[in-house]
Queue: 2 jobs
Job 1
Amino acid sequence: MIARYALFAVAAVLVNLATQRAVLAMSWPAPGLGLAVAIAAGTLTGLVVKYVLDKRWIFDDRSTGLATHGRKFALYTAMGVVTTCIFWGTETAFWLIWRSDLMREAGAVLGLTVGYVTKYNLDKRFVFAPRRTDAEAVR
């Protein structure tokens, strides 16, 4: 499962970057607008791909329905924001401490690793955990 999770992370990154390239290939009227749209579009497409793959192939979640997907996708996205802060924070801290690209990248790798492990655990506990019914909660 670890290999599958890592493979899905790579797939999401590749979708993200491919989307960014496609958006940046378009003509944009204002400087920087294309980059902002590319980053947003890439992030969204990568997030959707990773959600769909994780939901089915990591957490074996077969739930259906727009409301269920909406709730789970919102939680999945929130967990991603938390773990992105871990990644960015670690990378930035390594840069501020050592002021070298090598150490910044080492911080990025460490931050991504910790972030993905944390994301898996958060998703397992809060996003894809079976929901308790009211009767089960009372017991």
Job 2
Amino acid sequence: MQDEYRTVARAGVHETEINRSRFLCALAPAATEQDAQAFVAGVRKEHADATHNCWAYVIGADAAVQKASDDGEPGGTAGVPMLQMLLRRDMRYVVAVVTRYYGGVKLGAGGLIRAYGGAVGEALDDLGTLTRRRFRLATVTVDHQRAGKLQNDLRTAGRAVRGVRYGEAVTIEVGLPEAEVDTFRSWLADATAGSAGFELGGEAYGDAQTRRTSGA
């Protein structure tokens, strides 16, 4: 598994105008290829009167699925530069649709490549990106008396508390970087006088940070 990947922070649309043509870039997170295709279909339906609805998506933390379409623009001038921009920004699990309303001025192949790739880049800058980092899941079991303080200590330490369940004891699910598992185990023993249970689980991705992107 990849240690981390980036995706778009939220769904949204960014519009720009080039030589009287309107370019609307719609971006959204997409967990699966089916999600990406459904998003493309939705944008195409919403802008059925547009000259072109070109698209690209990247699915998988390792970018295993990469697809793009020029939707009638000259081959390689729309979908491919959109896809290249997503990959250059290390974007994953994301879909982009650039809708073009033709304004009467031809841009030429180079102009189209810059317009479509640029529309995606500007939309990423506008909407921001989210870094998701690989975590090892761990389950901590503690008595009710210690649970409140332990949760506060975990959050104060910047630990990713992913869930809390209350039963006979309190079960807290925590996300840990693999390299910090042993350190956390020792910290937990000290913090609870050895009374807490600790069990390692599988791996998952969790949010690391949201940030505005620079025009890379």
